[in-house]
Design a protein that fits this description.
Number of helices: 1
Distance between the termini: 68 Å
CATH class of the largest domain: Mainly Beta
Shape: elongated
Strand content: over 45%
CATH superfamily of the largest domain: Nucleic acid-binding proteins
CATH architecture of the largest domain: Beta Barrel
Keywords: Cytoplasm, Elongation factor, Hypusine, Initiation factor, Protein biosynthesis, RNA-binding
Subcellular location: Cytoplasm
Organism: Pycnococcus provasolii
Largest sheet: 5 strands, antiparallel
CATH topology of the largest domain: OB fold (Dihydrolipoamide Acetyltransferase, E2P)
Order of helices and strands: EEEEEEEEEHEE
Family: Belongs to the eIF-5A family.
Number of domains: 2
GO biological process, one term: positive regulation of translational elongation
Helix content: under 10%
Number of strands: 11
Structural class: mainly beta
Strand order of the largest sheet: 9-8-7-10-11
Length: about 160
């Protein structure tokens, strides 16, 4: 081996190392909170807890809705075990444009623009409302919900001047 051997240290992507989820004891997850079911971020709509039985722990039965697809999901877990909870973020952007393919141009408060998101595919009424209000010349604020390296248009409201 020579001292001049070249080592390739290029990285394809850089990440701050922040996890997309964090653990939480199943017994402390409440209705209205978030959990991961089958690797998908979900909002809890119902929690029922059974009593401890002959063979140990109380069980928690979660009914949740996938925050991106709207699909209903269920999970049964021992109340003393940990479940993954997604880090969910909400960001508001000003809507600049909606193109013919359904992609939206957005501007953040500090003036940064992004054009990588499309109108919601699972919520036709929201997509229609955004398009109709934009075509009517209204100034709109769009809420983007993000979790587990995924982002979608989640809500819209008229900007108050």
């Amino acid at each position: 081996m020579s001292d001049e051997e070249e080592v390739d240290t290029t990285f394809e992507s850089a990440d701050a190392g922040a996890s997309t989820t964090y653990p939480m004891q199943a017994g402390s997850i409440r209705k209205g909170g978030h959990i991961c079911i089958k690797g998908r971020p979900c909002k809890v709509v119902d929690v029922t807890t059974s009593k401890t039985g002959k063979h140990g722990h109380a069980k928690c039965h979660f009914v949740a809705i996938d925050i991106f697809t709207g699909k209903k999901m269920e999970e049964l877990c021992s109340s003393s075990h940990n479940m993954d909870v997604p880090n969910v973020t909400r960001t508001e952007y000003t809507l600049i444009d909606v193109n013919d393919e359904g992609f939206v141009s957005l501007m953040s408060e500090d003036g940064d623009t992004r054009e990588d998101l499309s109108l919601p595919k699972h919520d036709d009424s929201l997509a229609k409302q955004i398009k109709d209000d934009f075509d009517a010349g209204k100034e709109l604020l769009v809420t983007i919900m993000g979790a587990m390296n995924e982002e979608h248009v989640h809500a819209v409201k008229e900007a108050s001047n």
